[in-house]
Structure formats: C-alpha cells, structure tokens
Write a structure and sequence with these properties.
Strand 15 and strand 16 form a beta hairpin. The protein folds into 2 domains: 215 residues, Naphthalene 1,2-dioxygenase Alpha Subunit, Chain A, domain 1 (Alpha-Beta Complex), CATH 3.90.380; 114 residues, Rieske Iron-sulfur Protein, CATH 2.102.10.10. By secondary structure, it is of the alpha+beta class. The strands form 3 sheets. The chain has a 7-stranded antiparallel sheet with strand order 1-10-9-4-3-2-5, with no helix packed on it. The longest helix has 26 residues. It is globular, with a radius of gyration of 22 Å. Helices cover 21% and strands 26% of the residues. It has 8 helices and 17 strands. It binds FE2/S2 (inorganic) cluster and fe (ii) ion. FE2/S2 (inorganic) cluster binds next to loops.
C-alpha cells in the first residue's frame, strides 16, 4: 500500500456540471432497433477499447480466459514469457473454435478438429500431414492476433486495425486511481447477470442517484442520494463520489469488510465512474466493484460483476467479502429490475423521450458522448 500520500483522491476537483435545460432521454429506436444495435457493434464495440478482464484472472503462463466482443470470441492468454496476448478463437486450418471452456490452463493451444497446435504466442507449431502440401509454411498460419492493452491492471481489447494507443485513450485518467492499487487487487467473487434491457439503460441508471430513495432503501440509509459530487462531467469517462454518512462501508452490516485497498484519510466516500463503452468502476475504501457489460441484443445485456479486494485481505480473520457482495447483489438486482421495466415501457408506442432532471446531468452527458459515435 502507498504510505506517503494521504489525500482521498489527489486529482479530484469538483466540476460545475453542465445541466442542459431541455435535455431528454434518447429516442425509442436507440433501445429497440436491430439496425442501431448493429451500428453500435461496428462503430463502438469493434472500434474502441473494450474491457475484457483483469490481469489477476491469468497469473501464470498458460492461464487463459475467453472473452466476447462484438460477437467475436477471443482467447486472452498469458504466454510463456508472461506477456498477455489476445487471439481470435479461430483455427487457421478450417476455422474451428479452438477453446470452449471459459477459463483454463494449457501449455499449447490445440484445435479439437485436426489437432493443429499453436504456441501461447500464437505461432503454429504443428500441423499433421501439412508438410506434404507443396508451398505450405507454418509461419504463414499463426493465430490472428487482437490488440490488447492494460490499464490499472484491467485488460482491454480493441478489434480495430490501427487503434488509438491505449495510453492516449486513458490519458485523462492517468494516476487518478493509484490510491486503490487496482493492478494488485484480486476478485473474491463474480456474479453474472442476464438483464433484459438495453446496455445503455444500465449506464444511464448507474449515472444518477435520483432513483435511489425509492429503488435502494438500504443504500440510501448509508449514502444519501443527494450527496453526489462529480468531477468528470463530459466525455467517455464520467462520475464522481458520494458520501457514506452512516457506517464505514457499503455492506449489509455497514461495517468495513476487509483490509483497506489503499491508504486513505477519508473513508467515507465511494467513487463511481463509468468508462465508455462497457465498464463501471465503483471504488470503496475496502473493495472495488467492477461491472463489465456485454450487449447481446437491443433488449438484452449480460453483466459480469466482480468484487476486488486487497490480496492480503484474503487470509485475515476480518475478511468478510460476503458482507459487500450481498449488499451489492441486492442493489444490482434492484437496478436491473428498474432497467427491465424501462425497457418494457420504452418499447411501447406511447413512449417519447422525457426530460432529464437537474440530478441527471451525467446520464445526459453519457448520451451526448454515445451520440458522438452513433447518430
Ligand atoms: S479446423 Fe482446426 S485443425 Fe482443422
Ligand atoms: Fe441504482
């Protein structure tokens, strides 16, 4: 843990939010149209840096997990030199999917069909009987790579041919989260949710607490809905913090559930940031919660939620991750339910865009950012 800095978040500076009178929710087509969904998959999910996982999922050479971005299945693997690499999960022989299990460990990647075998860095090592084929050269048949990058320990993939460098994309956030030791943290639990709502409704829901008094009574008791202060108010990264006024953390008991993840002076703020296009990062004093979104159709989104803790917290007697997991599993389900109700109502012929309140400046900013990619 860092021991010299004690500010809660050195780069936090409250911003005067731009509340645009007249800002309204998006038109129906953005939530129901297969054409717009396809356009998003092309212009956003196939062109931007998209969260795929965290480096702690693959700590040893040979560890891998599968990820899916814009309907492309990817193998994310730590190779024999400990470099994290990404490949399309497509055999160079006749295209067969190479791995089916979502996570695993392997010394090589072997196709289940005719046993072409690839090294962890993607080189084709063996292809039975192909030496008999005139002109065949294994060097021409490495796995197709995908661009990967690491930000704060999180693994991002980009399907573009020549993506914006990851460091440049994340430059506005450089050093902002160093207090949370995110590269070192480990997940204690992942819960997958299958939500019958458009992925944008999840972002819009996350970006305001106007709904909290009615939807989240337990959360509102610990963290008043009107305590939000935002510092990122325009662009692909949006959010700020809310205060904890009762208890010490957002848990069922209201008590801290683990060793602090960093060195803080103020233990009574929770930072919430949305990171375009599929990441929600919620930073608590004693844990970091991550939501990873995978849009499946206009009306369906898979959400993978992880609870990350300090690696030394796991062995201690005061480690009670379930106190945080239960709290947010309950709160997540409350959110997903209202998102599903929104989806149902928005699909109606009676729906028309409604006015955002002064407490919904961040959803309005998120919509503006989204429309820069798809309009
Ligand atoms: S399709 Fe993979 S070895 Fe034939
Ligand atoms: Fe909520």
């Amino acid at each position: 843990m860092p021991s010299t800095q004690t500010n809660v978040a050195p780069s936090f500076r409250k911003t005067t939010e731009t509340f645009t009178a007249g800002a309204k929710s998006l038109s129906q087509r953005y939530f129901v149209s297969p054409e717009i969904f396809a356009d998003e998959q092309k212009k956003i999910f196939s062109a931007q840096w998209v969260l795929a996982g965290h480096q702690s999922q693959i700590t040893r050479s040979g560890d891998y997990f599968l990820s899916e971005i814009a309907a492309e299945n990817l193998i994310v693997v730590r190779d024999q030199r400990s470099t994290i690499r990404g490949f399309y999960n497509v055999c160079r022989h006749r295209g067969t999917r190479l791995r089916e299990d979502q996570t695993g460990h392997a010394s090589v990647i072997q196709c289940p069909y005719h046993a072409w075998t690839y090294a962890l860095d993607g080189r084709l090592l063996g292809a039975p009987h192909m030496d008999d084929v005139p002109g065949f050269d294994k060097a021409d048949y490495s796995l197709h790579p995908v661009h990967l990058g690491l930000w704060e320990g999180f693994i991002f993939a980009n399907l573009a041919d020549s993506p914006t460098p990851l460091d440049k994309w994340f430059a506005p956030l450089a050093g902002k989260f160093s207090h949370w030791n995110l590269p070192k943290l480990r997940s204690a639990k992942r819960i997958d949710y299958d939500v019958q709502a458009n992925w944008k409704l999840i972002f819009e829901n996350y970006s305001e607490c106007y709904h909290c008094p009615g939807v989240h009574p337990a959360l509102s008791k610990l963290s008043p809905y009107d305590s939000a202060e935002n510092d990122l108010t325009e662009g692909p990264f949006l959010g700020g913090f809310m205060r904890i006024t009762k208890g010490n953390s957002l848990t069922m008991s209201g008590k801290s559930c683990a060793l602090p993840v960093g060195d803080f002076r103020d233990f009574h703020r929770i930072f919430y940031y949305s990171i375009f296009p599929n990441m929600l990062l919620s930073l608590h004093p004693d844990y970091a919660m991550l939501h990873q979104l995978r849009p499946m159709s206009p009306e369906r989104t898979l959400i993978f939620c992880d609870w990350f803790f300090h690696p030394e917290a796991f062995e201690r007697k005061d480690f009670k991750p379930e106190d945080a997991i239960e709290f947010w599993d309950m709160t997540n389900k409350q959110d997903w339910h209202v998102c599903e109700l929104s989806q149902q109502g928005i699909a109606s012929r009676a729906y028309e865009p409604g006015p955002y309140s002064t407490r919904e400046s961040i959803p309005a900013a998120w919509d503006r950012e989204y429309l820069r990619y798809v309009s």
